[in-house]
Amino acid sequence: MLSAFVRAFKTPDLRRKLLFTIAVMSIFRVGSFLPTPGVSYSNVQVCIGETAGNNDLLGLVNLFSGGALLQLSVFALGIMPYITASIIVQLLRVVIPRFEALHKEGQSGTAKLTQYTRYLTIALAILQSTTVITVARSGRLFSGCSVDVIPNAGVLTIVLMVLTMTAGTGLIMWLGELISERGIGNGMSLLIFTSIAARFPTSLWSIAGGDNGPTKFVIVLAIVVLVIALVVFVEQSQRRIPVQYAKRMVGRRMYGGSSTYIPIKINMAGVIPIIFASSLLSVPGLLAQFADKNADWVVWLTNNLVNQAAPLHLGIYVVLIIFFCYFYTAITFNPDEVADNMKKYGGFIPGIRAGRPTAEYLSFVISRITAPGSVYLALVALVPTIAFILLGITQNIPFGGASILIVVGVGLETVKQIESQLQQRHYEGFLR
Question: Contact, 396 vs 59, CB < 8 A?
Answer without folding.
Answer: yes
